[in-house]
């Protein structure tokens, strides 16, 4: 199985959201569980605690709720670093 490196998660998350949006735009309902599990199975070891918390729930979060959480956990902190000039 492919294991992502630190920072690669953003590309996967954005691609999954793009797929979700494409399906939704044509009136199709994307498989939310599949998308969440795909994202959780590919993230790096540093996300282990986060993944265990998500997958350990009795009811798996839907993709839209997961997307909001992922943006908060990964994308938003990176955006702040980039916009402040510290990430360059």
Could you give a short description of this structure?
The protein contains four helices and no strands. With 88 residues, the protein is mainly α.
Q: How would you describe what is shown here?
A:
- The longest helix has 22 residues, at 63-84.
- Helix 1 crosses helix 4 (63-84).
- Helix content is 66%, strand content 0%.
- It is mostly helical.
- The chain is globular, with a radius of gyration of 14 Å.
- It has one domain (9-84).
- Residues 79-83 have low confidence and may be disordered.
- It has 4 helices and no strands.
Overall form: globular
Radius of gyration: 14 Å
The parts where pLDDT drops under 50 for at least 5 residues are 79-83
Largest sheet: none
Mean pLDDT: 75
One letter per element, helices H and strands E, the order comes to HHHH
Strand content: under 5%
Number of helices: 4
Distance between the termini: 31 Å
Topology:
Elements lengths: L8 H17 L6 H11 L5 H8 L7 H22 L4
Q: What would the keywords be for this entry?
A:
88 residues, mainly alpha, 66% helix, globular
């Amino acid at each position: 199985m492919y294991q992502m490196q630190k920072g690669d998660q953003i590309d996967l998350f954005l691609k999954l959201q793009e797929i979700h949006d494409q399906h939704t735009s044509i009136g199709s309902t994307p498989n939310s569980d599949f998308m969440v599990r795909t994202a959780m199975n590919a993230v790096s070891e540093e996300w282990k605690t986060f993944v265990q918390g998500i997958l350990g729930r009795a009811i798996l979060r839907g993709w839209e709720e997961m997307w909001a959480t992922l943006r908060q956990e990964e994308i938003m902190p990176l955006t702040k670093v980039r916009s402040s000039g510290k990430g360059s």
